[in-house]
Amino acid sequence: MPSKKLDFKAGQYVVYPTQGVGKLLRVEEQTIAGQAIKMLVIDFERNHMTLRVPMDRVEISGLRPLTTVKKMDEAIASAKGRAGAKRMIWARRAAQYEENINSGDPMRLAEVVRDLQRRSETDTMTFSARQLYLRALERMAQEFAVLHKIDLDAASDKIEDILGIPKEIDLNAADNDDEEEIDEDS
After folding, report:
1. What is the pLDDT of residue 177?
2. What's the CA gap between 46 and 185, in Å, rounded?
3. Domain 13-65 has CATH 3.30.565.10
4. CB distance 159 to 141 below 8 Å
């Protein structure tokens, strides 16, 4: 099976499956054990990390260019659907969700978001489910943000708005309202 040639350019945003969206800084050559190896140098600003991927390992690593806006919209639309069957024990489902998150594939990320999202304000999530949901949402939002040239928080909010996910209750807002009432009475 012939492998497809991936062509990357400095300054381009790419997706490394286990880390999310990064910016390709340059292609450099390093000598390791007497052998010259070409490396892609990728900066993950959010994680404060720089990753070097040997050119001959790019395809195996799953490194890919950003998806298209159309494919991202399809992934978000699929996250609006009904949650998948939950017949497996949580540990197995969590492992499957983790695998989907680390795939870097927008459709698989959307599956995790779809299955773990809160459907109403009264829905509760376990700590581990919430962490998986937030990681999947962040990975989707990273790519969405770059595609739409907005910041990460705005991208997360936009995705949740599209999906109709209820907002968290701001416990501090109630405290602020009480303080305002006290100030008015004085």
Report:
1. 44
2. 46
3. no
4. yes
